[in-house]
Model the fold of this input.
Amino acid sequence: MFYVKNTINFMRPRWIFMAMSATLVLISIFAIVTRGLNFGIQFTGGTVIEVHYSKSVPLSDVRSLLHKAGFPDAQVSNIGTARDVMIRVAPRAEKNRSKVGDKVVQLLSQDTTQKVTLRKVDFVGPTVGSELRQDGALALLYTVIAILIYVTLRFEWRFALGAVLALVHDIIITVGVFAITQLEFNMTVLAALLALLGYSLNDSIVVFDRVRENFRKMRKGSPAGIMNAAVTQTLSRTVITSFTVVLVLLSLFFFGGSVIHNFSLAMLIGVIFGTYSSVYVASALALTLGVSKADLMPTKKADVDDRP
Done:
């Protein structure tokens, strides 16, 4: 770290971190384009089966049985209690969808002495899945546009551009991790991405507010020095907030179960990069674009001549 009069000089190595961010974004885009995303059943269509056991059953046993029986992509999770199990099966062209539920219940009943009851079978068509993908992408786009307008009106266009690029940076890298690892990208992950937009923007707004105050209070000092002072002053708040959020997300990741596993992972990635990007993407870009004290000073009203 670089210190100048008790202020951490965050902006001095900004070009190194901005280059690193650009590299990570390019790698993520390359992975998304070449490998694609492993979309969940909500996006691809498929069959959702709910069954009830007379006693609790280990999900690992159910999952292993289905994988061996020709359903390698089956997803198994509890709903409500340990005796209620939800099974998601991807679309299978060679099988009649109306008989998939009966086939699954038959397999489960043959492998246990418990009574297995079919509660419900739902079908999600590929058309519905395609519409969900499109609606999800539009939701992200509209949110980013609304944020761009909000930050422009509240601050200044350089800050708005930096904040939006920081949001795009966080989302692309998070999605890129899912493309590289081929973890399932489902509705919970999409919800995490939308939540990350608000979290990342909040961090940037806190820094921008302090930057604006410092530009108005500090009569001397370069834009970089004032930016460094603002980031340093908000550092303790940022670290404490991010640390507590990460603790909660780690608990969800390890103890929350498979249903929210990918949600918590997406949030973890996003929170880490969102905290980083509020300094080395949003603030650094605003400084690089040439923000100055004159851009943030309140506009003086024109003098009105006294009446005779």
